[in-house]
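Entry type: protein chain
Record version: 2
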Amino acid sequence: MNRHYLQHITRRHFFQDCGLGLGTIALSSLMADTSNGSRLSAADDVAKPDGLHFPATAKRVIYLFMAGAPSQLELFDNKPKLTELEGKPIPPSVVKGQRYAFIQPDAAVLAPRFTFARHGEAGTELSEMLPQLATVVDDIAVVKSVHTDLFNHAPAQLLVNTGNGVPGRPSMGAWLSYGIGSESNDLPAFVVLKSGGSLSGGAALWGPGVLPAEHQGVPFRGQGDPILNIANPRGYDNRAQRDSLDIIRHLNQQRLEIVGDPEIAARIEAYEMAFRMQMRAPELLDLSAESAATLKLYGLKPGKSNGSFANNCLLARRLAERGVRFIQVYHAGWDHHSNVEGGIKGQCQQTDQACAGLLKDLKQRGLLEDTLVVWGGEFGRTPMVEASGALGRSLGRDHHPQAYTMWFAGGGIRPGISIGATDELGFHVVEDPVHVHDVQATVLQCLGIDHQQLSVNVRGLKVRLTGVEEHQAVDAILQNPRG
């Protein structure tokens, strides 16, 4: 990586490339005083985003990422033909030229393990495993035709989160932090919450890539201190902390003026943000002020802050109303190579009520109309069964990049609709194909950003979230498509 080149990449290049005429944003703005004695972040010197390229329909995003790839065939995409063909090899014409991680292309068909029913005014089909989502189905848009290019977890997760299957590209939240900053002065623009286990893509999923380090996601813990070591040591009060940071800031600023390295500016901002979070984060994680009714909505009990998915969904709402721009809620454990029936049951018990509760809570607080909520994983699951005596697997499903399902709500999304379709076996998309880059373009458009203009130049290559090929927002699910 050309470090000398990266030293000259700043937020200013984004606005210059976009032709917004906002002028030069001086790094010295990081040093401007605020009323509470801390310092302004780079975002504070930028006009508040009421639409950078066109009117925004959302101010913030809550992305519920289901790591491991939920089976669309057990949740959203009802395929009775699979029941008819269960136990028979899938037709060779369907799987010609396909590769899979663990099974042979001619593996036998596996029928859906659950029944489906229609719900809401639009009659959207959902599995019996989603009874709570069924109560808010008229608030969501279901897309059954998402597809991706990669079929292993780590690269596929990276592609969805960063636009590229190789580590080192900016994550979606980093792009938004870089482009439009945060509405909050004392919380990061981009916060990460995790539950359910480890993530194949690792920390690169929320990394800054070629952008300044200040734009990376900040992982929060669901219990205890939100960030490790955020509390002052015993006998070290806030005044002493402020004095120490002022000295460190002064030294860093001197070095910044000499070498002009934006990583030093990012370091200054990191120290200042950490100080502001010391004041704000403990209150954020204190759920004692939440009513019993609200806790019940998410499936939580009073006094239980346990780092669960439900707990993180409630924290996501609290972060959203406090001005955080991008809240990434990861929940792992959806990789069901064996016993897909039991796996889906367990995961839905952990997530279904919390997802529905989040939408209800946002809606009753007037937040859903300008909060975009996204649900989905990195790819789908095969119509064929995975079974291996050597691996101890049976009645599971392998990785399937050709088709899967996501849903969207709030923030400019048309509610109560379902678009896209797969063939009768749920194998190939046959109607309204949506690539993962189209999903990313849709998220950016809801925030008022043209995905083709949000870019940085790296060694002559215009790097952007949605890659170099042509992609577009999914107009069919938008209330106000650009047209």
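Comment: Residues 1-51 have pLDDT under 50 and may be disordered.
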